[in-house]
Amino acid sequence: MGTVLIHGTRTNRAKADRIAAAVASVAYLKFSRKVLVLPMSTQFDMISVLTGAKLKTNAIKSRKYSFDDSGIDALCRRAEQGALAPENFTDCCTSLARTVNSYDIAAISKRADFGPYVARNARLFERIVKDAERVYDLVILVGDSTEMEAIEKLQAIAQTEVTIITQGNKQDVFATPDTLYCINDYDGSSVFTYKKMKEIYGIQSDRKLYPVPYNIRFKDSCRTECSADFFSTNVKPDQSDDNSVFIECVARLTCAIVGMEEPIIQERKFVTKETNRKRGIRHVI
Questions:
Q1: What's the CA dihedral at 166, 170, 174, 177 to 10 degrees?
Q2: DSSP 8-state class, residue 206
Q3: Which of 46, 71, 26, 9 is nearest to 257 (CA)?
Q4: How far apart are the first and last CA of the chain?
Q5: Which of 102, 113, 87 has its CA nearest to residue 32?
Q6: Strand partners, 105
Q7: Mind listing the pLDDT tens digit for each residue in 248-271?
Q8: Which of 1, 34, 183, 193 is close enough to 136 for a disulfide, judged by CB 3.0 to 4.6 Å?
Q9: Which residues, at least 6 apart from 41, have a Cβ–Cβ distance to it below 8 Å?
Q10: H or E element, residue 130
Q11: Quick check: helix, strand or coil at residue 17?
Q12: Could you tell me if 223 and 210 are in contact, meaning their C-beta atoms sit under 8 angstroms apart?
């Protein structure tokens, strides 16, 4: 199962943090995978996206100590001293699960030059990832696609890569023959259909391109820093629920990442059949 690198295009970060949050939550809640999320950029505060509001509410307000020995920086310091044990991840990461080392997130680096630091210390991060793979089923690296040198180093570390693209004209992407593409905020009524997007990027297989539709409730949960709650209540939605198509599409992408056979998912439309016939709206896929 291993490690996946999730990032946007060369000119657009394209909500890599939100797609990573969705994949991580579905992998843990729906498929019972042990997950670690490592933000490889100071631009992606994954803790805030998933559960920041709750942490702020429960935080102890104190200015007595300014040194915080946690997050990705703390993992780096420990890795420099030797191999990381499960308790190192427990100590340095924020857990979203009741059981130890089940769904953990590292806080972002406080280094101003973290991107170049990642590029210079690729071997250190390779060791961190290998140690993490002994503890977790899935390690998610959230990369900043504008940090080209860092992305190239992380590509060599990860077994799977997901490039997030927007629905429209072709963008400049980091791509290999094995790259998976995710269309963020996919809309089935766009002239840039699923088939058209495959043609634009020269993608031959449906197993390489995964649309994730726009979902206002998920978007709002990210803005209000509680997307983990969104998934805990919607990971198994009723077929009539507006969130079910979104969850199904994230599940398809997650299955591709973790190497699972796709679950049996009904191919459904965003609106009723009668409305579709009148508007000519296409299927999600």
A1: 110
A2: G
A3: 26
A4: 25
A5: 102
A6: 37, 94
A7: 999 999 999 998 766 544 444 333
A8: 34
A9: 108, 114, 115, 142, 143, 144, 147, 150
A10: helix 122-133
A11: helix
A12: no
SS3 call for 104: strand
Residue 55: C-alpha distances to residues 60, 75, 221 (Å): 10, 21, 15
> Domain 3-57+68-279's class?
alpha beta
Query: Is 38 in contact with 139 (CB distance < 8 Å)?
Result: yes
Contact predicate 200/183, CB 8 Å: no
Q: How many helices (H) and strands (E) does the chain have?
A: 12, 8
φ/ψ (deg, to 5) at 94: -95, 130
Q: List Cβ neighbours of 127 (8 Å cut-off, separation of 6 or more).
A: 79, 83, 84
**Domain boundaries, given as residue ranges, for the chain:** 3-57+68-279
From residue 212, how far is each of 115, 167, 234 by CA, in Å?
28, 10, 15
Helix (H, G, I), strand (E, B) or coil at 262: coil
Structure tokens at 241: 């629920």
Which among 30, 51, 38 has a CA at the least distance from the CA of 7?
38
Cβ atoms of 232 and 28 within 8 Å: the answer is no
- pLDDT tens by residue, 82-113: 999 999 999 999 999 989 999 999 999 999 99
